[in-house]
Every structure is written in C-alpha cells, then in structure tokens.
Amino acid sequence: MTMKYTREHEWLRIEGEIATIGITFYAQEQLGDVVFVELPDIDTNCDQGAEVAVVESVKAASDIYAPISGTIIEVNEDLSERPELINEDPENDGWFFRIRLDDISELDALLDEAAYQEFIQEEEL
Amino acid sequence: MIVDVQHLKLESFHTKLGAKFVSFAGYRMPISYPLGVKGEHLQTRKAIGLFDVSHMGQIIIEGPQAAEALEKLVPAALQEMKPGQIRYSQLTLENGGILDDLMLTRWDKNSWGLVVNGACKFDDIKHLGQYLDASILMTHLEDLCLIAVQGPRARLALSSIIPEAADLVFMQSIRTTWNNIEIVLSCCGYTGEDGYEISIHKDHAETLAIKLTDLEEATWVGLGARNSLRLETGLCLYGNDLTRDTTPIEAGLIWSIQKRRRIEGGFLGAEVICKQIEIGADRKRVGITPLDGRTPIRDHTLLKTEGGELVGEITSGGFGPTHNGPIAMAYISHNVSAIETTLVAEVRGKALPCKVCDPGFVKQHYIRAL
Question: Are B102 and B89 contacting, i.e. CB atoms less than 8 angstroms apart?
Fold first, then answer.
C-alpha cells in the first residue's frame, strides 16, 4: 500500500491497480463543513484531471478532479447520508471513490507525503 | 471609488480570535472564526452571535422638513414615525429599481439616522447629496463602529451590561451610554432573531467587543454564517436579491411601503412601483427548494419549466444549517411563481427538479411587544 497526494489536495491509497481517493485533512479544513457530495457513476471512465465529483460546503461548491486515469469501480455511498464524514475522518471513512488505474506510471508525477506536507506549508505562507 | 482595501478598526482583534478574512464591500472582513460557518450559524440561532458590521455606512440627515425630503427618495412613510422608531426601506431609482436598502431611525422632528450597506455607501451619499436640498445637512459618521448582538439569549445577556436593552422591541432605537461612552442601541438585525446593533465610537469599540465576547454562550460570527442566517429567514442581500434592476414589488417588499405612500407616491420610481402595486409585477422573488432535499442550488443557477422554458434565476443559494437542507431565493416569472410549482434547476449541466416555496425557510423570531 502506498499513499500519494495531489496539488489539488486529494489523497490516493494505492493497492495494486486500485486507488482509493479522498481529500486531505488540510482540504476539508479549507472547505469548511461539507453538506453535500455528488459522486460519479460506477463504470465511468475518466481521464486524469477530469471533473468527477463535487463537494459542497456551507461556503461553496468545489470540483473534485480525477487524479489519475481509470475506471470508477466503487463510490462511498455513506457520504450521501453523512457528508460530514469528510470533515470528521477525511482520510479514512470520508473517502470518495475507487478507481482501477489505466496507467500506473501516472502515479510517478504525484506527491509523496513529505512533498505534500511541504507543498501545503508553502501554500499557507 | 475605493481602490485600496479598507481595514476594520477591530481587524487585529478578529485576527487574535483566529478569524479567516475575505474581501467584501471594499473591506477585509472576517468570513469565519475557528468554530466554523455551521457552528457559528447554529450558535446564533441557539444563543448569541456577535457580528462586526462596521463596514456599513452610518449617516445622519438633519434639517428642516428632513422627513419630507427623505420621502422623495424612499417609499416608506417617514412623517408619521415617532422618535426612536426604525423603518426598513429602499433608496429607489427612476426606473423603480433599488440603489440600496437601508434602515432609517427618526431621532427627532428633523433628525434621522441612516444605516446603509457598506458596498453602496459612497454611491448612496452621492445620491443623497444630489437629491436633498442644500438646507439638509448630511454627515457620514465614519468614526463609528457597528457591532450586532443577535440570538435568543441576546436580550437577557445584553441587558446585564446595557439595561436599556430590556425595554427595546423590534425596530426601536435609543441613544444611551455604556461604560460612560455614548452609544446608539437599536433592536434590529440581519439574522431573523431577536437582537441588537450597537453603534459606538471606534476608540471604544474594542473595549465593548471584549465585554461582549465574555457574554455567556456568545460567539463571533463571520460573513459566511451571516449569509446563511439571513437567507434562511428570507432576508434580501443587496447586490444579489436586490439590484438597480429589481423593484421593491418584485422583491416582495410591499410590506415596507406603508399605505399612504402606495396611494400618494411621490418618491423616485413611484410611477413604476405604484403601477406594479396596482396590476402586479411580471416577476417575483420566491424561495426554491430541490425535490431531492439535498443538492444546494447556488447563485446564478438558471431555472426552467419542465417544458424547458427559461423562467428565472437563483439570486442567493446555499445550505441552511438550521433548516438542515438547501436554501435558495430566486426571481421567476409571475405565471410560475405559485407555491409548489415544479421547476427545473440547471445544476452542473444536469436538470435538478425543484419547487417554488416561501423564501422564509426558518421562522423569524423578532420581539415585537413586551
């Protein structure tokens, strides 16, 4: 299992060719209280960078982009009833969807945890 | 024109409380505090919310026949008002549109206090200067701060430090002192709750802010929750729900035009507005709620009939923590404005079924009599 991160504040937990994707603790803090999530349909093929989900907080709606290309194989149905899971436990129970990767080499361009931490520290400045 | 960003007198006080800031109405304003928008909203409905609204314009208008002069610019009936009484009205334009909405307090026969929106205050002052006779004196009170204390516990808590608060009812104002400092205490606000606004000289604002912070169950509230609180109770936001192209009648504000003015007219835009009173307006401000009860419908979302005809647009939309669901206001064609009419909102390219409802998603709790 490997953890990867994006500059759009998503995390990916990679197990073989499957990635579980959510938003980071930092991202949920910036968003504020999440009140609604729109998730993609299962079996959707998405290109890296495509808008695949929407998360709405009390403040605004934000797009969630596919951090890698692949096929959506599962979505977190619990978020429909309990969007607050994204605030309460963003990096576990608040996951968004799972993707079957098309091209594992796309992962190389993503950040590891240390690089992501450095990135958000820079953003804070 | 404002070019540089303005700073609230209490900016460093808010910073110390951990506020996050945004630019609004030319000012750097707290959008939220560490409690967060939802928590701040719920605390205001449950107990007490504190708001720094010092960006708003505070103006004094004085002079012979000031009431008659102001009546040419607003559709509210002013001449009948008693000292200490507040009325809500609008600065109207020739086309019947709205330059700004405002609160007017009568102090005595020829002296009036106006509180106007921060984003509009310089336009308002220019407008007033242009239309008011030279014998009328206008003073922009730029050295005053304005702090709102809102919520069901506000009355009791504030009365412990300003006893006069106990005797004020909705839309009344009094000049008094706190801590030997002159203040204006008004029983009004923008949350739909009972509460007050305190006008105080900027040199004493921080002392008051500290005292208010110490009130039991009080929390500071930023613009985020200020917006959800007002929207939930159906109150209009100038710039979104009221503009130079919407009339008070389209906005459903006929209640703010007293009978004499409806008949007599005599204010800017009266021709258009009085005609709409008589025969109705082509469009109307309504509430909108999605049938799924979940999807927020944001500002500028287009509304269509089930047949695909464009009939209006959301002017304010979001999520209401007390309502615990999406809340929105829209202007739509009169012929589809009946409550329960089904419409379709275009949300991210998809058709979201929704229906027309009353814009008051949460009941207002003003204290109108003791």
Answer: yes
With beta carbons under 8 A apart, name residues in chain B contacting A54: 348
Tens digits of residue pLDDT in B60-74 = 999 999 999 999 999
Instruction: Give the best residue of A30, A31, A35 to mutate against chain B (max B CB count within 10 A).
Output: A35
Q: Say if the Cβ atoms of B319 and A36 lie within 8 Å.
A: yes
Look at B294 and A61 and tell me if their CB atoms are within 8 Å.
Answer: no
User: Which residues of B have a CB under 8 Å from any CB of A?
Assistant: 31-32, 36-39, 41, 224-225, 228, 294-296, 298, 318-319, 321, 326, 348
pTM for this entry? 0.92
Is the CB of A38 inside 8 Å of chain B's CB atoms?
yes
Q: How far apart are CA B141 and CA B54, in angstroms?
A: 11
DSSP result, B169-225: -TTBEEEEEETTEEEEEES--SSSBSEEEEEEEHHHHHHHHHHHHTSTTEEE--HHH
Element of type H or E holding A122: helix A113-124
Look at residues B35, B31, B37, B23 and name the one whose alpha carbon lies nearest to residue B52: B31
Rg (CA), chain A: 13
How do residues A12-25 score in pLDDT, each as one tens digit?
Answer: 999 999 999 999 99
Q: How many CB atoms lie within 10 A of CB A28?
A: 24
Residue B104 in contact with residue B70, Cβ under 8 Å? yes
Model confidence band, residue B3 (pLDDT cutoffs 50, 70, 90): low
A:B CB pairs within 8 Å = 40
Q: Give chain B's domains with CATH numbers.
A: 6-55+142-232 (3.30.1360.120), 282-357 (2.40.30.110)
**pLDDT digit string (tens) for B71-102?**
999 999 999 999 999 999 999 999 999 999 99
Q: For residues B181 and B366, what is the distance between their CA atoms, to the nearest angstrom? A: 27
> Domains of chain A, with CATH numbers?
2-112 (2.40.50.100)
* CA dist., res. B61 & res. B132, Å (int): 10
